[in-house]
Amino acid sequence: EHFELLRDAFEVRLHEDALEQLVAAYKLQDLSSLAADPLPLYTCDGGEITLAAAVKVLQEQNIGTGFANSDQAASTLERTVLNPFLIKETARRAGDYEKPVIRHLQKTKEEEVLLNGLKAAAITGKLDISEADVRRYYDSHPKVFSHEPAVWVEELLLPSADEAEKKRKLLEAGTPFADLAGESLRSDALKKANRFHFHPLEKVVYPVLMAAVTNAPEGELVGPVAVEGGFSLFRVLDREDTSIEPYDQVQRRALALLRREREQQGLQALLEKLRKKYAAQIRIDQPRLREAVPD
Asked: In this predicted model, what pLDDT tens digit does every residue of 112-155 receive, in sequence order?
C-alpha cells in the first residue's frame, strides 16, 4: 500500500515497449544488448529509470527469474528496481539520505551482492543438471512457459479529432499505417512502424484504448477514439490466446530457471552448514540490535 502511494505521488509510468525488450532479452538469456540502452523503462517526476540502469540493478542482484511474461516482469521490476528507487528518491527529497538508517539499508544491499558472489563461486560451478532434469522442470511449471493473451494492433495516435479524421481518410484510401508513423504522438511509433503488441498489463495504463481494442473486430479500421494522450485510429490485426511455449523453444530458459532454483537451494544448504559450524562463535550485539530494531 505504501509503495502504491509513492508510485502515485511520483506519477510513475512503466513503458511497455521497454518492458517487452527486457522480457525478450531474458527469454534469450542475454541482457548484454540492453546494458547501455538509454530507453526509459520508468518515467516519473523525479526523473527516469533507463533499461541500462535497470539491467545493472538486476545483474548486481543476480536476478535470473521473474520475467516469463510482462505481468510477472512488472512485478519483479517493482520489487527489485522501482521500489528501492522510490525509497531512495523519497529519502533524498526529505534530506534523509545520509542518515545512518538509510546508509544501513544501502550497506545491506551491498552485502546481498557479495552473498550472490559467494553463491556463484561456491555453488554454481558444482551444479550437475541433466537434460531430463530440465524437461521435468518444464513439465512441472506450465505457467512459467505460457504466453499470456495479446493483441497485435496497427495504431496511430493524434493530437486532435480533426487531425485524426484527416488521417482516417488517408488510411481508407489505402495509405499504410507504417507510412504515417512520423505523425503519431507515440515515442516508439517510428521504431515499431505503428505496429504494437498489447498485453493485459496495458489495461492499467491505457484503460480506454484497451477497452476499445478488446471490443473491436479484427481487420476493421476504428476511430478516431478519444483515448489516453490523444485520439486513436487503429486496426486489430491478430489476437493471441494463452498457450504453452514448445519445449524446444524454451529449453535454454528452462535450464537457466532450474539452475537458479538449484543455486538457491545450494545457498540455503551452505548457509545452514556454516551456521552449525560456527554456532559457538555467533554473538548477538544487543545494543546494536536495539538500535536497528528499537521496538
From this structure: 555 555 555 556 566 788 999 999 999 999 888 887 788 999 99
Low-confidence spans in the chain with pLDDT less than 50: 1
HSE-up of residue 275 (Cα within 13 Å, Cβ side): 6
- CA gap 68, 70 in Å, rounded: 7
Q: What is the pLDDT of residue 1?
A: 44
With a CB cutoff of 8 Å and minimum separation 6, the contacts of 86 are: 3, 6, 7, 10, 12
Q: What pLDDT, on a 0 to 100 scale, did the predictor assign at position 199?
A: 79
Quote the pLDDT of residue 246. 86
Among residues 76, 73, 128, 80, which one has the least CA distance to residue 259? 128
Task: Determine how β-strand 13-14 pairs with β-strand 243-244.
Answer: unpaired
Residue 230, C-alpha cell as written in the block:
490523444
Measured distance CA(145)–CA(243) in Å, rounded: 8
**Residue 15, C-beta contacts closer than 8 angstroms, at least 6 positions apart:** 39, 40, 41, 42, 43
Q: Is 281 exposed, middle or buried (0-12, 13-18, 19+ CB in 10 A)?
A: exposed
Task: Cell numbers for 246, please give them.
Answer: 514448445
Sign of the Cα torsion 157, 162, 167, 172 reads: positive
Residue 195 identity: R
Let me know how long the chain is.
295
Q: In angstroms, what CA-CA distances link 177 with 13, 192, 194?
A: 26, 11, 6
Cell of 125: 560451478
Q: Which three cell numbers stand for residue 232?
A: 486513436
Residue 47, SS3 per DSSP: strand
Closest CA to 232 of 155, 295, 286: 155
